[in-house]
Design goal:
This protein has two domains: about 90 residues, Transcription Regulator spoIIAA, CATH 3.30.750.210; about 120 residues, no CATH class. About 40% of the residues lie in helices and about 15% in strands.
Amino acid sequence: MVLLVEGVFVIAIFVLCQKKEGKIRQASSVDDIVRHKKVKFLDNNFLALPNHKNILTELINKNIKCQFNQGLDIRLIDPENSELLSRLNYLGEYIFAFDDYLYLKIIEKKIDLMRWRKPFNFKFFVYCHPDMELSNICKRIEWLKHKKILPYVMRNIVCWDSALNEFYIDLAAYSNQPNVFKKMSFIEFLKKRHTNNDRISSSENLYYENI
């Protein structure tokens, strides 16, 4: 695993990260760092790099099998870089983030620019925090299922001390297993996972009341 670009991913923490990494910039060339047939880039925000399209073109021309492991900023997708991403020799799912249901409109708009995508070859990180309304979380999961996009639930550590900890555990166990998420509904998963009807009913009600 190698690092191509130094910068930040979340705008809200840019000032803090800037002290350690500086403004986003290219740290290395493709030739400098690619030493293997498969490469996972750990960049914070690759698409924010001004010359990222040139780098994508180079990766395509050299047929380098790669993945942007930390996710890509879907807000920065445009017709040109979408087309370039579609031509990469890509490893696994294309990874993005869906941190808040408020971002739905822009995500829908950007998804439309990637008509080349196939069912479940996109994955979205879904951030969860007890301070969020459950509808914010559950609606994101349900929208992704409808669009045949894989979620990956990322729980803030404080979820473990929440009164809803068991629900977060069930939701993550369901969402973070692609073969499960593709094949069954949340209630079907709960019935296979638990023999305790109270636990099934509790998680089921919390989910379906909030979608």
